[in-house]
């Protein structure tokens, strides 16, 4: 197959997957709507039909996915957000396998593909009482980042400094001090374990992908400090399952100002302070605390807004059924807010960066 034809085929497959994603999101909101389920079945079937010259592992996943579709149509399976995540991840893995080619994939990846097909089969047939567990097994197989991380909450200073060094930053005494503040902050919340390392990796990588328009040093400081004041809020507020009262919402909204105040007397970090103060502003002017529009928001704050949201989606509060969400889901939700909550240009940089960092953030 020549390069033009191959490129055209990949583009077609990507478009079909995107259609499936859109219908899946609609099904999550209206899970029992027969018309939506029929549309989902049609779009997923079109995606599977487009998989010409399938390799055995793609065949296995496609067969399993087809059986899940049949179980959805007969209402043996109920559409849930968790099942939607599992289907999205399966589509992503199938497309990735097709694009990479059988000979380019490692043996463990190929074995995982076959295992995914088996799990899809089991899911399509299992009783309702076991479906949640089967979905969790499938999700953990296809998205290693959703595995629950146990262990101590200690954040090693050397880990953060190594990330900074990777992006050309020296062991500035102030940066080292900011990193030490992250340790007790992460110890308060289980889901924050490793948080600052993940924020640094993604934020600094996005900036580098864009050609470093923001000072990496100032950005690193802002990424380490911007949410420190959140650690001083009550745990019942941080993990609340209810809508916040006006008083509690005010406490949360003030954290950007309070974190910024930590740098008030450190003139060298004035730019980092501005990033911290702006990181909850929205591109459409509907953010807080001031309601700035995109042209008024510091580019570093635009980066932080995206990486913060990515972190919040992939490591949500403990009351969620799963403690983490697949990266694919987080990327979709962020892209849906491009031009409203987030800067469209920085969402594009995020997309490019996520492809480069795939597998390096957990």
Can you walk through the features of this model?
With 362 residues, the protein is mainly alpha-helical. The chain has 2 domains: 140 residues, Up-down Bundle (Four Helix Bundle (Hemerythrin (Met), subunit A)); 201 residues, Hypothetical protein af1432. Helices cover 65% and strands 0% of the residues. It contains 17 helices and no strands. α3 packs parallel to α5, α9 crosses α17 and α15 crosses α16. The longest helix is centred in the N-terminal third of the chain and has 27 residues. The two termini are 36 Å apart. The N terminus is likely disordered.
Q: Classify the helix fraction into a percent range.
A: 55-70%
Extract low-pLDDT stretches.
1-5, 148-155, 318-323
- Can you identify the CATH class of the largest domain? Mainly Alpha
Our count of domains comes out at: 2
- Alpha-carbon distance between the termini? 36 Å
How many individual β-strands? 0
Q: What is the averaged pLDDT score?
A: 83
Give me the CATH superfamily of the largest domain: Hypothetical protein af1432
CATH topology of the largest domain: Hypothetical protein af1432
CATH architecture of the largest domain: Orthogonal Bundle
Largest sheet composition: none
How does the helix and strand content classify structurally?
mainly alpha
**Gyration radius, rounded:** 22 Å
Q: Approximately how much beta-strand content do the residues carry? A: under 5%
The ordered string of helix (H) and strand (E) elements is HHHHHHHHHHHHHHHHH
Principal-axes shape call: globular
Number of helices: 17
